[in-house]
Every structure is written in structure tokens, then in C-alpha cells.
Amino acid sequence: MKQRRDARLPVATFALAVKEELCGVRLPEPRHGSAAPGTAAAVEAELHGLIRGAGTLVVSRPPSDPARSRPAESRAAPGLTCEVRADRAVVARRAYRLFRAAAGVRPVLAVRRGPGPAGGRFVCRLAPAAPALGALGLLDREGRPLPRIPSGLLRPGRAPALLRGFFLGAGSVDDPARDHHLEFVVAEDAPAVADDLRAALAGLGCPARRSGRRGRIVVYLKDGAAIASLLGAMGAAQAMLRYEEQRVRRDVRGRVNRLVNAETANIGKAAIAGLRQREDVQALAASGALERLPADLQAVARARLGHPEASLREIGELCDPPLGKSAVQRRMAALRRMVRAGRPGGPAARAPSSTGAQAGGALHCARR
Fold first, then answer.
1. Mind listing the domains of the chain with CATH numbers?
2. pLDDT by residue (tens digit) across 95-116?
């Protein structure tokens, strides 16, 4: 994962907080190079993922050896060195403890200075590394790197540790307050590894997508619930709780905003309709037709004239006897048609009844 200017950030980012918590997952203490079977399997899976994500293999040969110019995949590795390179010291120290717990070896921790505020690289170096890497399933019997992750590490029992290691080496997650996004970055020449990561994620109920970005393969999740579940599975319980809290807040805020927008739109429509209805009543009053309307139409018209901001339900409550919203709507529609027809007091002035059949008959007579 690339982090820009993070050395000067006063507050840790969410992704860094997740990595720090993952680096705090307890490891078994090495006892003569061995540990309990279950914990040993988890340690080996995590170290495998960390080396896949942030490891570099260096082959040391005499300068005169012509094989020095050939790629590492085509050479045996008697002088193989493994370097786990990280932007954060906590990740390099985690690699050191993983090597100690998994293989009982003592790698070397170093710092490489570079230009810029974030140019430093923390390195955990193991040499010779061939025996340890072979036991982890990273090299074949001839010392050549294997292109795929062993199928045993993709099973649900070991996948969380594998993904934890890969996330520490080449993963990132966005703050849930801004966006739902968690990703693993894979080298462009390792498409099989990307497929294996997707298989491991699918086995944990977190289906992932795959895309390309600037010459690399990105395996990513966009579902907030799946990201929270994965954080918990990898061992970041506090980050999972924080993620869930932020996710719920964001979802609630989104629903509230949608409801407020819908209510605002409805209020705006009701206000425009109320003003239009008042104009209709004013037109009837100016022509003197308002006094000739039936009593129930007059009641609705006068209520609207005095309360242009009221809703149809509120207009109905102002009438005596009270009317329902649909009854008020039908009477307002009748007044509207009268104004458009220019015949106030004509057939359209007959008040619609409260029953559906009679109301339909009255409207039918008005349309003749």
C-alpha cells in the first residue's frame, strides 16, 4: 500500500489503525522452533500472505556467474534472501515475529532512507531464506517461486490469517465515514494470486471484484457489511466495531436525507397546489359565482381562501362536517374545472357526493 506524506500526519488514518491492530494479534511464543499445531498453521498462513504482499526475493551469486542476469524464477536459490519491505515499522516488526514463530529463525531489521518525508522503508531481511520459504509453500523443490497460493491456505480455517498477512503487506481500507472500500493490490504478473485471494474471500462470505489500476491488479470489496465482517475475521475487532458504527451512521444519515428531501419536495408541491387553488377560488369570488355554489363546495373554497398553506387533510378538518383528503381533492378538482370552463355556477358546480358511485356520476355530468 502506498501512503503519501503519512510520516507527517498528526492523526493515524483508519487504514493505519487497522494495520496496527492486526499487528497486535497475539502470536505463540517460539519453543525450540515449534508451536501448537493450530496456531502454527495460522502463523504460517499469515507469513505466507505477508511475503506475497510485501516480499522481495534477492538471489546472491558471484559477479562472474552468467545466471545473475536471468530472472529469479529460472534459477535455483542457494543464496536466496527474502526481504519484507514496509512503510511502517510495526509491519516490519510483525514480519520479524512471524519468522521467529513460524520457523524459529532470526531475521534482521533494517531501515532504508530515501528522499522525501515518506521515503524511509523498513525492511525485515532473512538470509538464507530458501528453507523457510520452501516450508511456507512459496518455493518449489528446486527453489523457484510458486505462482499460486497453496489450496490449503484458502480454506476458511486459514484464510483469515492469510488475508491478514496480505493486507499488512499490500492492503488498504477507506474510512467508512467517507466510502466503503477495502482492497488488496497484486502485481500485474500474478493474476493467479489475485484469483486465489478472491477464492479465499468468497469462502469467508465476502465476494470480491477485480480490476486493473496503473499496471497492477486490485482485488476489492465495496459492500460495507462484507468489509466489517472481513475486518473481524482478520482479527481487527476494534476496527470492525468502529466500522460498523460509522457504517450505521452513514446509512441512517442517508435515509434521513432522502426522507427530508422527499418531504421537502412534497411540501413544495403542496404549497404550489394550494396557491393555485386559492387563485381559482379568488376567480370565482371575483365573478360572484362563489356565493352561488353549493354549501359543501363553498365550505371547501372558503377554507382554501383563508388557509392557502394548509394541506388537503387540514382543509378537510376545517370543514363542518369534516371531510377526508380524497373528498377535498374531488371538490378542488371541480372548482378547477369550473374556472377553466368559465361557467361558474353551471352543471360543474354540483357538489360531488361522498360515495364513489355518486361522485363519479357528478363528474360525468360535468364533462358533458
1. 6-61+71-173 (3.10.28.10), 255-356 (no CATH)
2. 999 999 888 888 999 988 766 5
| Mean pLDDT, rounded, of the chain | 79
The H or E element containing residue 184 is strand 182-187
- Among 219, 98, 204, 103, smallest CA distance to 157 is for 204
CA angle 202, 204, 208 (to 5 degrees): 35
Q: How far apart are the first and last CA of the chain?
A: 76
Q: What is the pLDDT of residues 253-285, one digit of tens each?
A: 777 778 778 777 777 777 787 788 888 888 888
Q: Are 49 and 235 in contact (CB under 8 A)?
A: no
Residue 33 CB: number of other CB atoms within 10 A? 11
Q: Assign 219 to helix, strand or coil.
A: strand
Per-residue cell: 297? 363546495
| C-beta separation of 354 from 327 below 8 A | yes
Tally the C-alpha atoms within 13 A of residue 250's C-alpha that lie toward its C-beta: 14
Q: Is the pTM of this model over 0.70?
A: no
236-250: per-residue pLDDT in tens? 999 999 888 887 787
Round to whole Å and give the CA distance between 290 and 286: 8
- The burial class, CB within 10 Å (0-12 / 13-18 / 19+), for 97 is middle
How many other β-carbons are positioned within 10 Å of the β-carbon of residue 98?
A: 25
**Alpha carbon of residue 362 to chain centroid:** 56
CA–CA dist 331, 277 (Å, integer): 11
